[in-house]
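Deviations from the work plan: none for this task. Representative record:
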Amino acid sequence: MTAPVPFIRDAWYAVAASTEVGRALLAREILGQRVVIYRTEAGLPVVLRDRCAHRFAPLSMGERVGDTVECPYHGMRYAPDGACVRVPGQSRIPPVARVTSYATLERYGLVFAWMDETVPADPARLVAIPQVEAPGWAVSRGYLRFAARWTNILDNLVDPAHTGFVHKRTIGSRGSDDVPITATDEHGDVVCRRWVNGEPPVPMMQRFLGHDRPMDRWQVYRLSPPCVSSVDFGAVEAGQPHDDAAMDAAPYRTISYAFLTPETAHTTHYFAFQLRNIAVDDPAVTHEFETLYQATFDEDRVLLEAIEREEMADPDAVPVMLASDAGVARLRRLLAKRGASMTR
Amino acid sequence: MTAPVPFIRDAWYAVAASTEVGRALLAREILGQRVVIYRTEAGLPVVLRDRCAHRFAPLSMGERVGDTVECPYHGMRYAPDGACVRVPGQSRIPPVARVTSYATLERYGLVFAWMDETVPADPARLVAIPQVEAPGWAVSRGYLRFAARWTNILDNLVDPAHTGFVHKRTIGSRGSDDVPITATDEHGDVVCRRWVNGEPPVPMMQRFLGHDRPMDRWQVYRLSPPCVSSVDFGAVEAGQPHDDAAMDAAPYRTISYAFLTPETAHTTHYFAFQLRNIAVDDPAVTHEFETLYQATFDEDRVLLEAIEREEMADPDAVPVMLASDAGVARLRRLLAKRGASMTR
Amino acid sequence: MTAPVPFIRDAWYAVAASTEVGRALLAREILGQRVVIYRTEAGLPVVLRDRCAHRFAPLSMGERVGDTVECPYHGMRYAPDGACVRVPGQSRIPPVARVTSYATLERYGLVFAWMDETVPADPARLVAIPQVEAPGWAVSRGYLRFAARWTNILDNLVDPAHTGFVHKRTIGSRGSDDVPITATDEHGDVVCRRWVNGEPPVPMMQRFLGHDRPMDRWQVYRLSPPCVSSVDFGAVEAGQPHDDAAMDAAPYRTISYAFLTPETAHTTHYFAFQLRNIAVDDPAVTHEFETLYQATFDEDRVLLEAIEREEMADPDAVPVMLASDAGVARLRRLLAKRGASMTR
C-alpha cells in the first residue's frame, strides 16, 4: 500500500492555530485544495476555497471588506457562506458565481474545517480532550510541515517500536525494546499499549519526580482515524494497579496530541500540542517541552521525508511487514473502511 | 477554455529589442523553440533555430564567424538562411544539414520574426504605428517576462474592468467602475471603449495639464490578434466632440503598446512601449513613465502568475463569464478562427 | 537514437574512489538505484541497496554496527550479503527481509560493483591496465558529475573530431582538423586512431620534451563497452615506426582513463585518472594534470548538459550523421548488441 490513498474528506481537520486566524487573509493548502482563512467581525473562522469563480484569481491576494472577501482581479465579493454578493458593473449576480465554504469549529487553540461539503458537519465528531480546559494541566504547542504523505506519518504514530531508534537522541530509550506491545481496536480507535514495570524512570521523569527508584511506566498510543493521534506517557509507583484512576492520579503524565492534515498527496501539516501534569505554572518548562517535542517530531520528519522520496521513486515497492506492525495493520484496515465512504 | 491554446505561428512576433541584437549571439526561447539571434555585417537581424542538426548542440554556445554561426561541438557553420556551409574534415555537405531560419523585420525599436516557415512572411501584416516616427511624440520602453500563458495576458488587455482593482496602487481609479464599456470588432481587431465625461482628470493628467476642471476622458483598448495590444488614454475639454480629430488634438494622450510573444505554453515575453504627447523632450518624464508602466505591468504579472499556477493545478476548471467579459469573448472567437489556420 | 537506452547492468561500474570508502556509510545513486557503500572490518567494500525491506528507510541514514548496517527506523540489521540478521523484538527473521548486495572489486584506486545480481560477477571482465602498478608511470585523478546521459558522453569519447572545437582553450589544437581518423573494432572495443606526422609537438609536449622539432604524434581513442574509455596520446621521433614498441618507448605519453557510471537515465558519474610517463616523481605536475583534465572534462560537461536539455525537450529529434561519426556508429552497434542481453 505505497501509493498515496485518497483523502478522507468527511472529517474535522486542523487548518490553523487560533492565533494565526484574524481579520487578515491567510492562504493555505488543505487536502489538495487552496483555501483562504479569516475571521468575521463576530470572531467566527471562515474557510473558503481560494479561487474566484470568474477567472481563478486567488481570493487571498484580494482584500477582506467587512465580512466578505473581494477578488483582486475584478472586485467580486464573496460572503462567508461562499455566495457572491457583488459583481462590479453588473446588477444580476450569476447563481454559479460562488466558492465552496467549509464548516468550521474552533477548539483546543486550533481552527478545524470539515472538508466535505456533501456531508453535514457534525461537531460531535471532533475528538474530546477534557484535560485541555481542566485545571492541573499545562499546554505546550508546535507545528511542522512534513514533505511526506499523511498515511506514513499516521503509521509512525501507532508504532512504539521506532522510538528507541529514531528518537535515541531525544525521548527514546532502548531499554524497552523487548517489552511486548498490545494493539487493539477501541471504539474505532487503534490503541497500542505497553507497561514497562519496575524500572527506573526515564531521565525526564527523574528530573521532575526528584528520584530514580523503580516505577511502573505506561505508553499508550491512540489513533482516532483519520487524523488525530495521542501518545500518553506516565508512571505510577511500582506495583500499583494499572487502571484509569491510577493513571489520572499519577505523579508524572504527559499526553501529546498530533492533528495531521494532508496538504497535498505528498505533504502534511502537523499541528501538535502536549498536555502535562507537572510544573504546570512554569513557562520555562512549557518552552522546554516545545523545544523538546519540536526536535523529536523533526527526527520523524527527516526520516519520513527520505522515505517519501523513495516511495515516489518506486511507487510499486511492497513493504515487508513485521510483528511490531500490528497497530499499523489495524490502522490500515480502518482507513480502508473509511475509504469506502470517501466522497472522492 | 483553460488549457493553453496552440501557438499561432504565422504572425510577426517581437523577439528582442533592437538594442539587444548585435554581432554577439543571443539565445532566447520563442513559441516553445530555442532560437539564436544576431545581426549580419550588413546589420540585418538573423533568427535561427538554436540547435545544430548534427548532435543538437546549441549554436548560441558557439561563435559567430563572419555572417555564419559555428557549432561549438564540431565546428559546422550555418549561414543566415539556415544552410550548413562547412563541415570540418568533410567536403560534401549533407543537404539535410540545415536549421530553420525565420524571416525577420525590424521596426519600432524591436526585432520581429515570422515564426512559420511554411507560410510566406508578409511585412504588411505588422501593425502600423505612425506615431512612433512622427514628431510631437516621445517613447518610453519596457520588458517583462510573465510566467503565465499568453492567452490570459491577452484577455487582461481587452478587459478595462480590472484596472480599478489590480492597478489601484498605480494607474487605476475606481470612480469609473460603473461607466459601461462597448466591445466591438473593427477590421479584425477587438476594441473596447468608454468615455468618462465631465469628471476631473486623473492625478497624472492634472499634473501635466496644470488644472483639475472636469474633462471628457477616453479609454480605448485595442487587440490586434494574435499578439499586439494598444491602450489609448486621453482627455479633451468637456463637451467637445469625441472623434479622431479631437483625440489627435487632445492636450493629454498616451498610447501604450504591448507585443506579447509566447515563450512556452506557460510563459510569455512582454515587450512594451508607450507613446505620449506631453513633455516629449523631457528624459526625466520618460524615465518616470518607464518606472510607472513597469510597476503597472508587474501588478498584472503577479496576479496572472498566481492564476497560471491554479490553471496548471486544475486544467479542467471552467470560468464563470461576466458582462464585462464582452471583449474577452470576442477575442476568444477571433483566436479560435486563427486556430483553424494554425500550422501546428 | 536520442531516447536514453536502458542500462547495461552486467558489467563492472566504478561506484566510488577507494579513498571515499571507509567505515562510514556513503550514499550514492548508481544505474537509477540508491546504494549504500562501506567497508567491512576486513577492508572489503560492500555495496547494498539503500532501502530497508520493511518501510523503505534509507539504510545510509542509519548506523554501521560491526560489519552490518542498522536501519534508522526500527533497527533491523543487514549483513554484507544483504541478509537481515536482526529484527528487534522479533526472533524469527522473515526470509524476504533482505536487500540486494552487489559484488564488488577494488582496483586502480576505485571501487567497482557488478550491478546485475542475476549474472555471476566475473573479475576477468574488468579492463586490464598494466601501467597503473608498473614503474615509470605517475597517476593523476579526478571526478565529475555530468547532468547528461551516459551514451552521449560515450560518443564524445570516441569522437576525436570534437577536440579542436570544444577544447580549444585547453588541450585542443586545430591544426589536426583535417588528418583522417580510422575507426575499427578490436576485440569488442571501438578504436579510433590517427597519426599526425612531422609536425611540431603541441605546447604541453614541447614543455616536457624541451624542444619543438617535428615529431610523429598519435591519438588513440579506445572505448571498451559499456563504460570504459581510454585516450592515448604520445609522440615519437619523426619517421620512427608506429608500433607498440615505439609507443612504449616514447619520450612523451599520457593515457587518460574515464570510467562512466550512469547515475540516472539523465545523469552520469565520471571517474577519471591519467597516466603519464613524464615527470613521474613531481607532485606539482600531478596537480597540474589534475587541474588541466578537470578543466577539459568540464568543457565537455557544459556542452553535453546543454545537449541533454535539448534531448529532453525534444526526444524525437533525429541527428544528422557525419563522416567523423564512424566511431560513434560502431559504438552504437556494439551497445545495441549488449542491449540484446540486458537483464532489464
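Chain C touches chain B at residues 2, 152, 155, 161-162, 164-166, 177-178, 180, 302-303, 306-307, 310-311, 317, 319-324 (CB under 8 Å).
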